[in-house]
Amino acid sequence: MSQVFRGIGVSPGIAVGKALVIEVRRPRVKREPVDPAQVPFELSRLQRGLEISRRQVLEIQERVAKEVGPQYARIFDAHLLILEDRWLVEQAGAIIQGQRVNAEYAVQEVLEPVRQALSRVEDGYLRERRTDLDDVGDRLLRNLLGQRESFHMEGMRGEAVLFAHDLSPSDTAQLQRDAVVGLVTETGGRTSHSAIMARSLELPAVVGVEEVCAHARDHETVILDGTEGLVILAPDRETLTRYHARKQQLEYVGRALHKLGGLPAETQDGYRVRVTANIEFPAELPAVRAHGAEGVGLYRTEFLYLNRPELPTEEEHFAVYRAVAAEMHPRPTVIRTLDFGGDKLASAIQLAAEENPSLGLRAIRLCLHRPDMFRTQLRAILRASAFGTLRIMYPMISGVAELRAANVILEGVKAELRCQGIAFDPEIQVGAMIEIPSAAVTADLLAREVDFFSVGTNDLIQYALAIDRINEQVAYLYEPLHPAVLRMLRGVVSAAHNEGIWISMCGEMASDPLHGLLLLGLGFDELSMTPGAIPLMKRIIRSVTYGQAAEVAQCLFGCATAQEVERLLLQEMRARFPEYFAGDGWTGAEGRPGFP
Asked: In this structure, are 417 and 534 located in the same domain?
């Protein structure tokens, strides 16, 4: 019997092949007391395990650089930083000496609290960084225990669709490209390094498919749709025929869309929209260029603060920002300042636990609470602005007072740099994210204080509709096309243009091609999205006039529910772009990583 499972499509495309279910076993560690005389031996075992693990990671990094590209090999820089961190050695060594226990138990005791902390955070990107910590920790533990790698490639021949509960970046890097045609995991998200590796290898992938491994059978025919996030086990002949045809169609469409890379996102009546990319770290820049992005509309900087006991230095910030600015020049890069709370940071920041971190001391609030930390990041961004076109964006602005307080600190940093004779762009643009209802309502006031707006729909929708996005009980109420959301967007765009500033959208809503005509018709000047979504968005924009898009958007304001809006919008998109929106599997789900 055919079975259909739904997950999160993280690497587009369709794969048809034979299932291969693998079990990635995590090492099991026991607490074993040791004699005082054995403590030095356990300490040397710890050092030896770290050295072996570091050598293995370097070998993987070298192989990935050679086979995939140096930009993707940088994913493993974070792994090396963990293995080379003196804090890990000191903490594990203290446990070995203080409790007189075996080295592997000490390592587990040090890493487990960090793993648990990352598991509890609400931000999906930060939560998925736990995979990197697991990858490094498990490697070190296996080496201490004398165990082999977590899984092996024996038996992987032909066209295998790999099924696993989870895959670490190291596991993904081991895949034989000529043997594997697709990946399916029960855990993970869009920003996991394994998802990024799958996209770099051009392997269709679906993650977050709960309990699928219990149903998949080795050598059974399966279909994987990495665009729609579907996995079909034992498909019937009719379904197979339909997906083979769809696969050929997508490959043809992909080749056609690829040709749009160097063309502007301009309507048939000359209205220009900048289409830019959201990125997590520098390794994604090649994909940004390859898909025809006109810049980076959202560069998240949180990765600099992860998996470390101390805050990043100004020089560490500067080195990263300078490299991005130089690589993207002359295209602009919008750097979002630190956007998470104290419960998610390095142990160097001592803040009280909060009952509701998403409404607590986070983002710009934390930066204003810790101006020393904020000034370090601002100095680095300003210094790097001398090497390319950088822009600064403050997250979670709730009102004018907060914005002015941030700008006071920024102006102070500029004055310092001038006194020190350090070059920076004196005309650097400063913007505010509109992701809180209070900011949307007072957008006319905020627009007088900044150079641009960027709408972060993920949080704006969550706060406006009182929906916890990660609460499965109410997640169905997270509706990007809710009439209240559309009215807020229209008001914010109007406020920005009335004050003569430009406005972007960098939330997941901009990555969904279903919303293309709506966002164009609302008058957004820039849409920033997952790189893979860019070609189709350009295709949509270049196929209509601005007047047609504005008419579609106006019609949607006559709808009373999100379902009515989606039904009408989908009808319009299917009529105009049947090759992309004709499938029955279309759900309008937010945040797909894009079409081929």
From this structure: yes
Does residue 506 have an active-site annotation?
A: yes
Domain for residue 593, yes or no?
Answer: no
Q: For residue 390, give its domain range.
A: 258-579
Strand partners, 6: 230
Q: What's the whole-model pTM score?
A: 0.69
Q: Among this protein's residues, is 165 annotated catalytic?
A: no
pLDDT for res 545: 97
Q: Are residues 450 and 548 in the same domain?
A: yes
221-225 and 230-233: which strand pairing? antiparallel
The domain boundary, picked from 145, 176, 203, lies at 145
Same domain, 306 and 405: yes
147: its two tokens: 């165990």
Please pick, among 317, 482, 506, 515, the residue that the annotation labels catalytic: 506
- One domain for residues 422 and 277: yes
Domain presence at residue 374: yes
- Sign (positive or negative) of CA dihedral 348, 349, 350, 355: negative
- Whether the Cβ atoms of residue 391 and residue 430 lie closer than 8 Å to each other: yes
Mean per-residue pLDDT over the chain, rounded: 85
Question: pLDDT tens-digit profile of 195-230?
Answer: 777 776 778 999 989 889 999 998 899 999 987 889
Cβ atoms of 83 and 107 within 8 Å: the answer is: no
Sign of CA dihedral 16, 20, 21, 24: negative
The confidence score (pLDDT) of residue 177 equals 66
Q: What share of the chain is helix, strand, coil (3-state, %, to 5)?
A: 50, 15, 35
Exactly one of 79, 193, 291, 515 is catalytic; which is it?
A: 193
